[in-house]
Amino acid sequence: MATCSAPGKIYLFGEHAVVYGESAIACAVELRTRVCAKRSDSVRISSDIGTTGIDFEIHPYVSKVIEKLGSMKVSVEISSDLPVGSGLGSSAAVTIATLAAINIEFGLGYDHEEIARMGHEIEKEVQGAASPTDTFVSTFGGVVQIPSRKRLSMVECGVVIGNTNKGATPKKTAKLVKHVAMLRDEYPDVIDPIIRTIGSFAERGELLVRDRDYISLGRLMNVNHGLLDALGVGTSELSSLVYAARNTGAFGAKITGAGGGGCMVALTDSPDRVASAIEAAGGQAIVTAFTKEGVRQE
Ligand code: PMV
User: Fold this and answer.
1) CB of 122 sitting under 6 A from ligand 1
2) Greatest pairwise CA separation for the chain in angstroms
3) Could you give the CA distance from residue 261 to residue 62 in angstroms, rounded to a whole number?
4) By the 8 A CB rule, do 13 and 25 touch?
5) pLDDT tier for residue 99 given thresholds of 50, 70 and 90
6) How far, in Å, from the CA of 170 to the mean position of ligand 1?
7) Is the CB of residue 202 below 6 angstroms from any atom belonging to ligand 1?
8) Which atom, in ligand 1's list, is nearest to the CA of 259?
9) 31-40, 161-170, 211-220: least confidently modelled range
């Protein structure tokens, strides 16, 4: 029996702009999906949503992992701290943790690079398209600049996630990416500068993270939120949580991930106060921490 866990992630800067080749910064957070893999006489996948065999409707990521690694007979048990489809990389975390657990249980000998690469292929096969960000950050952990994959220093302040518990549908990211593309086709002179400006935050962010300048980092997160709103991926619920966090003194707060509902993220040195404000504004607050550790054996 082998148990592995892999973390989810937030975007400090750059979602949507990365689709157009701009830089982003993603950070692993200490919210994990744990997967226990055990040799068995048939395939069994069990999670909060039920127990199945190979099933591409209910457990598409784990089913693809098993298929890719050689259709072995394995029993897989999943438990997760990550809300599904909310921009925190839950599908990457389950994919990477399953790859790693089966890799150990069956002695397949893949290294982290290969696990990250297979994880990205599986996300693409299941979703049609996927950036390598989530699977990379889930495998290696830490604070990572995309697309360079440069590892930055750790962000050492508190982090609170606010979940609107709205809009978590499997096709949400694709729909919002399409919306931005449409806007850009129609108004390239308006939208391109917005996208480039969002990309510039990840460049500046690198230095601010190094200097532990969380005040400036937060200020730029606030601007990034405004620009995501301008691209039409915000919602009133997301903005209420963002403003609730800022009004209680968070360094900064913004949407994380595709938007259209899902989650926001705040940097703060008083996480409990920010969490209470998010809850009072109707969100579900998750106080967490950034983590250096990617996928690991438990
Ligand atoms: O909501 P998430 O965590 O899947 O993030 C989507 C990020 C986008 O930039 C909108 C799309 C992408 O694949 O990079």
Assistant:
1) no
2) 60
3) 26
4) yes
5) very high
6) 12
7) no
8) 1
9) 161-170
